[in-house]
C-alpha cells in the first residue's frame, strides 16, 4: 500500500469521525450550508474511492482529475481561512479547534500531500478548470440562497462576502483565488514529475 493510499484512508476515516461530531453542535442540514463541510465530504468520498480502487487496479486518469478537484476544494478552504476568515473575524480559536481544526487545516494538508505523492502526474492546463468546479457550484448555490432567494428563505451570509462589499467582487475574488490554488497544485505536480 502506497503512502498516498494510506493518506486517503486517513482522510476518509478522519472526516467521517468529524462529521459524526457535527450533530452535537448543529443540525447536519445547517452544517451542509458551509463550503468547508461540503468540500471535506467531497474530499473524503473521493479519497475513499481512490484508496479502495488502487487495491484492485491502477487509478484511471479521470479519477486522478476528480482527486485533483477535491483537493483543490479543501485547499481553497485552507487558504480562505488563513487569508480571509482568520484576519477578518480574528476568531482563530473557533477556526482552528475541534472539527474546524480537521476541516480547515489537517484534512487540506493531508489531501495536498496525498495528491503530490501521486507524482508523476502531468495534468494539462485545461484540468485547472476542473479544480474550479466545486467552488463554482457552491458559488452558484451561495448566490441563490444568500442574494436571490426571497428574504424569508435566505441563508445568513456565513462568510461575510456581501457585508460592506459588492457580492460580485467577492465572487470574482473567490474564483481568482480558486484558480490560483488549482494552478499552484498543478504546477507542483508538474515540478515533482
Structure description:
By secondary structure, this protein is an all-alpha fold. It has helices at about 5-25, 30, 35-55, 60-90, 90-95, 100-115, 130-150, 165-190. The two termini are about 20 Å apart. About 35% of the residues are buried.
Task: Walk me through the topology.
Elements: H1 3-25, H2 28-31, H3 35-53, H4 61-89, H5 92-95, H6 98-116, H7 128-148, H8 167-192
- Tell me the Rg in angstroms: 17 Å
- Count of discrete structural domains: 1
- Tell me how many strands there are: 0
Which whole number gives the mean pLDDT?
Answer: 91
Order of helices and strands: HHHHHHHH
Query: How far apart are the first and last residues' alpha carbons, in Å?
Result: 20 Å
Structural class computed from helices and strand pairing: mainly alpha
Fraction of helical residues? over 70%
Task: Please tell me what the overall shape is.
Answer: globular
**How does the major sheet shape up?**
none
Q: Helix count, per DSSP?
A: 8
Poorly predicted tracts of residues: none
Strand content: under 5%
Amino acid at each position: 500500500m502506497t503512502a498516498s493510499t494510506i493518506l486517503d484512508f486517513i482522510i476518509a476515516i478522519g472526516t467521517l469521525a468529524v462529521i459524526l461530531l457535527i450533530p452535537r453542535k448543529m443540525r447536519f442540514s445547517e452544517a451542509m450550508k458551509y463550503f468547508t463541510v461540503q468540500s471535506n465530504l467531497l474530499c473524503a468520498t473521493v479519497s475513499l474511492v481512490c484508496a479502495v480502487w488502487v487495491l484492485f487496479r491502477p487509478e484511471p486518469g479521470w479519477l486522478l482529475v476528480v482527486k485533483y478537484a477535491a483537493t483543490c476544494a479543501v485547499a481553497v478552504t485552507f487558504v480562505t481561512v488563513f487569508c480571509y476568515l482568520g484576519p477578518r473575524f480574528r476568531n482563530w480559536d473557533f477556526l482552528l479547534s475541534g472539527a474546524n481544526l480537521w476541516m480547515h487545516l489537517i484534512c487540506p494538508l493531508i489531501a495536498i500531500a496525498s495528491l503530490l505523492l501521486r507524482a508523476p502526474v502531468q495534468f494539462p492546463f485545461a484540468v485547472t478548470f476542473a479544480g474550479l468546479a466545486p467552488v463554482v457550484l457552491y458559488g452558484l448555490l451561495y448566490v441563490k440562497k444568500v442574494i436571490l432567494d426571497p428574504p424569508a428563505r435566505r441563508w445568513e451570509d456565513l462568510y461575510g462576502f456581501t457585508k460592506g462589499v459588492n457580492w460580485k467582487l467577492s465572487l470574482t475574488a473567490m474564483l481568482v483565488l480558486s484558480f490560483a490554488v488549482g494552478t499552484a497544485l498543478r504546477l507542483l505536480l508538474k515540478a515533482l514529475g
